[in-house]
Amino acid sequence: MAGSPAPRLTPTPSGMLNAVGLQNIGVRAFVSEKLPVLRKYDTHAVANVFGYSLDDYVEVVRILEDAPGLAAYELNISCPNVKQGGIQFGSDPAMVTQVVGAARKAAASRPLWVKLSPLVTDIGVIAKAAEEAGADALTVANTYPAMALDPATGRSRLGCPTGGLSGPAIRPITLRLVWIAAKAVAIPIIGLGGIEKVDDVLEYLSVGAAAVQVGTASFTRPGTVEQLAHRLLEQVGNANYRNLNDLRAVLRRKID
Description:
By secondary structure, this protein is α/β, with parallel strands linked by helices. It is built from 9 helices and 12 strands. It has helices at residues 27-38, 54-65, 93-106, 123-132, 171-184, 198-206, 216-220, 224-238, 244-255, and strands spanning 9-12, 15-18, 46-49, 72-76, 112-116, 137-140, 144-146, 149-150, 155-156, 163-166, 189-192, 211-213. The strands form 3 sheets. A 6-stranded parallel beta sheet has the order 3-4-5-6-11-12. Strand 1 and strand 2 (15-18) form a beta hairpin. The radius of gyration is 19 Å and the shape is globular.
């Protein structure tokens, strides 16, 4: 996929809009060209999988199953189902069950994470549907559709009319979604949205996240993840906890 036209990124108050358009070289080229490079790094690589039909998801996972070097799959279900009028897979519990169940059957050798959309009536219902269909973990949540215009021209600041909002502006909204999802399921939840500081990580752990992802902050400070990991370990030690899970358990009890 060629992706969206430029410009693809634009800053917003306390955040950023992106309209990358899921540009990628395709799963077969990824396996032959990108994955050998990723295998050289001493870290875990997770493949984000998307599609516009059930067959797309299944075929991508099937091809990745034969390739070494991946730790897990992250299923992006915020895509439109072109065979059912363009409704997002992740907006309907029945479709969540279908796509996660199909991917689960194909993903025999690796954990399956499911990345949820924030644009749902009850994310707890969606989370439960994904869990029951075979998800090993949930990622909460995707970006929020938004716009930014140049008043001088009246045109979008992106190459597309709209993009996805991320960054600190969305953190309070996504924290609530993580909290709701964590009460609905027993599988781990990975929280993301606006994480820049250790306190942001602790907020997500407090509402039930088992781990976090960092995106927008890495655009301005590529070393953000490394710094957060180091400072988080320092904080655990300074508070006399044995490990991060002990701290997480204490934080969770306070919010519950």
